[in-house]
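Worked problem 6 (solution included).
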Amino acid sequence: MHEYGRVVRVRRFNWRLMARVTGVLSLYLAAGLLVPFGVSLCVRDGMQFALAAAGLLILMAGLLLRNMVGGRAEYGLREDESYWLTVAVWVCVPLFGALPYLFTGVTASFTDALFESFSGFTTTGSSVIGRPEDLPQSIKVYRATTQWVGGLGLLLLVVAVLRRLGLGAGSLYEAEFSGTQQRRLHPRLARSVTRMWVVYGLVTTVMWVVLAVQGVGVIDAFCVACSTVSTGGFVTHSGGVAAMGQGVVTTVTVFMFLSGVNVAVLYRLLTLRWRGLWRDAELRVYAVVYVFAAAVCTVAFVSKGGMWGESARYALFHVASTMSTCGFYMSAPQGWPFFVSVVTFVLMVVGASAGSTGGGLKVRRVMVVARYLANYFNAMIHPNAVTRVKMNGEVVEEGYVDKVLAFVFLYVLFIVGGAWVLTMCGSSIPEALSMAAANVGNLGPSPVVDTMGGHLDYALLRPAAKWTLAVLMVAGRVELFALVAVVSPSYWRLRRLG
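Solution. The predicted structure is:
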C-alpha cells in the first residue's frame, strides 16, 4: 500500500496468534481434566480411562495449535482480529470440551455432547441430561468446572496468563465486557484481571465451605458452588437445589444475588471498602428491582392460595435465579400465575449487572436505554433543552449510548430469529420465545411458565433445535457484536481492502 509516496507495509491477518491462544487454552483444558480424573480414581466410578483419552487428545491438539500452527505468532492484536479471536476461542474450546462427554458415553450423540459442552462453558445451564444424580461423580465435577472457567470468561483467562499480548490484551478485555464499560481493579490490566479471578475464587471457596458445613457432600457442594458463582445453573439432582434442604436453598439464594453483582463491587465488599458503595446507580437499581419483583411474585402466589412464608422463600429464590441468570429451579408453591410469567420473562431479558458472571441485556444497558428515552421525550416537550444521558453523575458518551442501542436491537433480533427457527423445529411459540430468550441470555432452564424450567427436557428437541440453541448460547456469551462482526459482509470487504 502506498501513502504519500511511501510504501506502507500492511500486516497480514494474525491467524497464528489466534491458533496459539486457542492452543494455550486447550492445554489448560487438558490440565483441568486432571481434577475429574483424580475424582474418578478416588471414587472408582470407572471414568478414568475415558477422561485420560479425552485429555490426551485435547493435549495433542493444544500442542499442535500452540507450537506448530502458532509457533511464530506476533503478539499484536488489532480490533478486527480481536473479534475473530473471541469467536474462535468460544467455539473451539467448547468443541474440545465435548470430548469427555463423548468418550465417557454420558450423552447419547455428538450433538448432545456439543450441546452440553457449549451450555457449560457459556454458563447457560441448559442440559440434555435428564437425571444428573445418575451421572458419575467425575462427570459432575467436570460439568461444574466448565461452568466455573466460563464464568468470568475464557478471554480474561487469556489476558491473565499471556502477559505478552500488550495492547491486544485491551481489545480482549473490551470484547469480554462489550458495551458495559467494566471498571478495572488495578491500573495494570493483567493485575486487574488477576484480582478478578482471585475474588471469583474466594467467593466460590466460601460458598463451597458453607455448603459443606450444612451437610452437603463435598463433591455436590463443590458442583453447586461452581454453578452458582458462575451463574451457570447445572444441578446435581433432578429435583434441583430444593432436594438438598431449605438451608441450602437460602445459601444459594444469597450467593445467586451476589453473583449477579459487578465483580468490582464484590472486590470492594471483600476488601471492606463499603463507604459510598450504595452510590453505585446500577447496584441500587439491581437491588431495588430484586426486592420489588420478589414482593410482587410473593403476593401473586399468595393470591393463588400459597402460604406467605413458602411463597416468599420461593419468590426470593426464583427472582435471584432469574436476575442473575443462574437458572436454578424448584417447584412453585402453588399454581403459576400468569403475572409471574410476565415478570420472569422481563427479568430474564434484563439479566444481571454489567461486569458480573450473569447474562442478559445487563442492568446498566437497560438504565442507559431508559434514560435515553426519558431525554428523548423530554426533548419533544422542551425542544430547546440540552439533555445528556448520565450514570453516577457523569455524562455518558454518545458513542457508548449508540452502542447500547445497537446491542439491544441485536439482542431482540436474536431472540426473535432464534424463536422462529425453533418453531420450525416443532416448538410452540411460547416455548420457542422462552427458550430463545433464556439461552441467548445464558439463563438456561429456569422456568418462565409452569411447563418449563426443570420440566423441560432439552434431550427431546430435534438436532437442528439443539444447534440453534448452541449458537444462541455463544452469541449471548460473546455479547453479540463479535459474532455479528465476523459474519458481516462489510467486515470482509474491509479485510480485503486491508
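Discussion: Confidence is low (pLDDT under 50) at residues 1-10.
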